[in-house]
Amino acid sequence: MSSTQQKSSFNPESEVHITYDDQQKINKFARLNAKYEDFKEEIQGKKSELQNLEDAISELMLSDENEQVMYSEGEIFLYKDVTNAQESLEQYKNELLTMAADIEKEISSLKDQIDELKAHLYAKFGSNIHLEMEE
Amino acid sequence: MGDDEKKVSHAGIPPSNFVEDVESFMASSENGGDAGKVLGRLEEQHNKYKFMELNLLAKRKRLKNQIPDLERSLDMIKLLKKHKTESSGEKLVTEFLLSEQLYSKATINPSDTVYLWLGANVMLEYTLDDAAELLSNNIDTAKKQEKTIEEDLDFLRDQFTTTEVNMARVYNWDVKRRQAENRSA
After folding, report:
1. How far apart are alpha carbons A88 and A80 in whole angstroms?
2. CA distance A72 to A85
3. Any B CB within 8 A of A72 CB
4. For residue B18, how many C-alpha atoms fall within 13 Å in the half-sphere facing its CB?
5. Using a CB cutoff of 8 Å and minimum separation of 24, what contacts does A40-49 make?
6. Has the ipTM of the complex gone over 0.85?
7. Which residues of A touch B73 (CB under 8 A)?
C-alpha cells in the first residue's frame, strides 16, 4: 500500500512565522509526495511485468517454430503457434513500454516540482522543517 | 483565519482551518488559552481524517483491482471478435480454469454472443458489440470514480497536513508560554 506517512514535520522550537501561503505550499508538498510514492509503486509493477515478458520472449526463441504453446490470456490459456505467440508478446511489450515511459515522465515532473517546493520551504524554514522522504 | 471559500466541504470531509496567528487563536473564547484542550481537539480531528483516509484508500484499492478485471473481459471479447472475423470456422482451443487447481480443455466455436455476469446470480446474453460497449462503459465509470477518489484524497491530505501543522504550532506556543512563565516566576 502507498505510504501515507506525513513527510513534513515542524520543530517546535521554530521561531519563524507560518503564513497561509506557506501552509498551502506545505500541503502541496505533501500531496505531490503522496503521488510520487503511488507512481513509484506503479512503475515497479510495470517493470516486473516487463521482466516477465522478456523472459517469455527469450524462452520462445528457443522453442521449435512448429510447436504450439499455451498463451495466458485473461483467465484462460490459449493455444497459439510460436510465431503468433511471439507477435502477441511483442505487441504487449510495446504497450507496456509506452505506459512505463508515461509513468517515468510523470515521476520526473513530480520530482522537479517537489524539489522546487523543497528548496523554497527550506530557504524559509531552514532546519526547522523536515521534508525528507523515508526510504 | 484562512479564506472562507475553503470551508465548502468536499464529499462530506470537514475542512481544517488554517490558523493565521496562534496567539489570537488561543485567546479566543472557545480555546481560552488551554493548550491541552486544543491539542486534544486537534488530535481527535486528525484521527477522524486518518480514518476517512483509510476508507478512501480501501475504496481506491477495490477499484484498482476491478478495472484490470473489466479490461481483461474486454480483451477476451476483442479476441472472440477477431476470431469470428478472421478464422474460417475453425475452433479456438483453450484451457480454462475449472477450479483453482484444475484446468480443462475447451474448444470455442466462432460465436456472435457472450454471456456477461451481471451479479445477483444473473447472466445475460449479449452480442459481442453490445458486450464490448457495456464493458467499456463500466471501465469509464470505474475510472471516473477512481479520479473522484483521488481528488477527495488530495483534499483530505491537505486537511490533515494543515491539522498537523496547527498541532505543532499550538504545542510550540504552549512551550514558549511556559518558558515565559518560568522566567517571570
Report:
1. 10
2. 10
3. no
4. 20
5. A40/A107, A41/A2, A42/A103, A43/A100, A43/A103, A43/A104, A43/A107, A46/A96, A46/A99, A46/A100, A46/A103, A47/A100, A49/A96
6. no
7. 74
Interface of B with A in 123-152 (CB under 8 A): none
- Long-range contacts, A58-64 (Cβ 8 Å, 24+): A60/A85, A60/A86, A60/A89
Distance CA B17, CA A109 (A): 30
Interface contact flag, A76 B92, Cβ < 8 Å: no
Give CA–CA dist B35/B41, Å, rounded.
10
pLDDT interval class at A10 (50, 70, 90): low
When scoring B70, B94, B169 by the number of chain A Cβ atoms within 10 A, the one with the most, hence best to mutate, is B94
Name residues whose C-beta falls within 8 Å of residue B177's C-beta, 6 or more positions apart in sequence.
Answer: B35
**How does pLDDT run across A12-69, given as a tens digit for each residue?**
455 667 888 888 899 999 999 999 999 999 999 999 999 999 999 998 888 888 888 8
Place of cell 498551502: A24
DSSP states of chain A: --------EE-TT--SPPPHHHHHHHHHHHHHHHHHHHHHHHHHHHHHHHHHHHHHHHHHHTS-TT-EEEEEETTEEEEEEHHHHHHHHHHHHHHHHHHHHHHHHHHHHHHHHHHHHHHHHHHHHGGGEE-----
| Coil, helix or strand at residue B33 | coil
Question: Which of the pair, B87 or A70, is modelled with greater confidence?
Answer: A70
Helix H or strand E segment including B1 = none
Tell me the pLDDT tens digit for each residue of B81-91.
888 887 776 78
| Spatial contact of A18 and B169, defined as CB atoms under 8 Å apart | yes
Smallest CA–CA distance from A28 into chain B, residue: B158
Chain A contact set for B79 (CB, 8 A): 73, 78
CB of B158 closer than 8 Å to CB of A6: no
